[in-house]
């Protein structure tokens, strides 16, 4: 998930997320992405642009008994949608050489708004109405959310999927420090040890990266900062946002709708500012049916992360969800290297594996 990230990097759309929503990363990416799922310790896994709460006990008390095959199926769906989002975004940005990452994010968010609005209209899901009071409270969160997705797109354009997942670990370090100063939250030695290993793996991975690109790394570190900021800001404003809703609550579907709806005018503004309009008018890609198919598919995958993450969480629990999210980065990194024929070395591969294992240790340490 780039954190909450790699991933719109890559999640959404983004993120870690999630183009890794490669998260261009593709953190949509990251990222991560416009998808919001619940995760242990109230964190955002951004590689996939997802929201997490750490109210595991409350969730378990409301969870209905589920068959083991339901848990397996939901977990598989979550992993496939998360990995698929990052890989498809990376494919669109790199293999198609599409140089309009903001436009890709904008289209993915538009797809999410259309699908969620349709499901709400049919009564399949419930969402809060977009009132002016709610928009004013949520706007700071949305601005950071859009920045998270955009930087994820930009970074994944230049960085391979494996390194995006490792560099997204920096988000956890920034978030942990932010929690100390903003929420007076203290972490035990296991957590700090895992965070230290993450930093070492990110540094060693950068030094041994055969396809190192300073622009891509710059965008990725900005993405990590914005992803952590999104998590911390969302936590501070969540109670305020609930107070201005008609129902007094704000479910995940409403947050997906809020983020994606508000991102549309801001996305259009950024498309104009970054002069992507001229590129869109000239590129022959927009006349290719296969390109539009991949674009639309990435939008559905980004939204799919939201639904599958909530499904998986309700079938298992926040701790299992968090651990599976960390383990999921291992096959994602391997697939990214093989699929895109990324040049690598033994040292770089060892750094990537080291960083992924550090992420697993971090998830386990947070469970204790």
Walkthrough of the structure:
The chain is built from 14 helices and no strands. The longest helix has 30 residues, at 214-243. It is mainly alpha-helical.
Helix content: 55-70%
| Low-pLDDT windows of residues | 1-67
Largest sheet: none
Query: How many distinct beta strands?
Result: 0
Count every helix, treating DSSP H or I runs of 4 or more residues as helices.
14
Spell out the helices and strands N to C.
HHHHHHHHHHHHHH
**Compute the gyration radius: what is it?**
18 Å
Task: Write down the overall geometry.
Answer: globular
**First-to-last CA distance:** 21 Å
Mean pLDDT: 80
Note the beta-strand portion: under 5%
Brief descriptors of the model:
368 residues, mainly alpha, 14 helices, 68% helix, disordered N terminus
What order do the helices and strands come in, and which of them pair?
Elements: H1 56-62, H2 68-95, H3 101-121, H4 132-156, H5 161-167, H6 169-183, H7 189-208, H8 214-243, H9 252-273, H10 276-282, H11 289-315, H12 318-327, H13 329-339, H14 346-367
Helix pairs in contact: 2-11, 3-4, 3-9, 3-11, 4-8, 4-9, 5-13, 5-14, 6-7, 6-8, 7-14, 12-14
């Amino acid at each position: 998930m780039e954190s909450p990230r790699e991933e719109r990097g890559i999640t959404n759309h983004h993120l870690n997320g999630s183009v890794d929503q490669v998260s261009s990363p593709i953190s949509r990416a990251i990222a991560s992405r416009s998808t919001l799922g619940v995760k242990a310790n109230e964190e955002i896994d951004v590689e996939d642009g997802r929201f997490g709460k750490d109210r595991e006990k409350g969730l378990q008390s409301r969870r209905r008994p589920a068959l083991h095959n339901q848990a397996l199926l939901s977990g598989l769906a979550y992993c496939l949608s998360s990995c698929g989002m990052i890989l498809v975004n990376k494919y669109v940005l790199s293999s198609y050489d599409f140089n309009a990452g903001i436009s890709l994010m904008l289209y993915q968010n538009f797809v999410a708004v259309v699908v969620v609005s349709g499901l709400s209209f049919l009564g399949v899901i419930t969402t809060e109405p977009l009132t002016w009071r709610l928009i004013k409270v949520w706007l700071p969160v949305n601005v950071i959310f859009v920045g998270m997705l955009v930087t994820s797109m930009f970074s994944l354009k230049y960085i391979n999927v494996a390194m995006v997942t490792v560099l997204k670990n920096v988000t956890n370090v920034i978030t942990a420090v932010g929690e100390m100063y903003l929420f007076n939250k203290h972490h035990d030695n296991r957590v700090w040890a895992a965070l230290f290993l993450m930093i070492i793996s990110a540094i060693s991975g950068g030094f041994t990266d055969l396809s190192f690109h300073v622009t891509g790394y710059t965008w990725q570190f900005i993405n990590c900062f914005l992803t952590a900021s999104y998590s911390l800001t969302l936590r501070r404003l969540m109670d305020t946002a609930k107070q201005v809703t008609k129902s007094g609550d704000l479910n995940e579907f409403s947050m997906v709708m809020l983020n994606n709806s508000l991102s549309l005018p801001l996305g259009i503004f950024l498309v104009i500012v970054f002069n992507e309009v001229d590129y869109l008018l000239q590129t022959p890609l927009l006349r290719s049916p296969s390109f539009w198919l991949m674009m639309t598919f990435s939008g559905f995958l980004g939204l799919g992360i939201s639904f599958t993450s909530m499904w998986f969480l309700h079938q298992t629990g926040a701790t299992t969800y968090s651990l599976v999210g960390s383990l999921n980065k291992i096959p994602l990194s391997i697939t990214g290297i093989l699929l895109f024929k990324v040049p690598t070395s033994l040292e770089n591969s060892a750094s990537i594996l080291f960083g992924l294992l550090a992420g697993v240790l971090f998830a386990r340490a947070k469970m204790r």
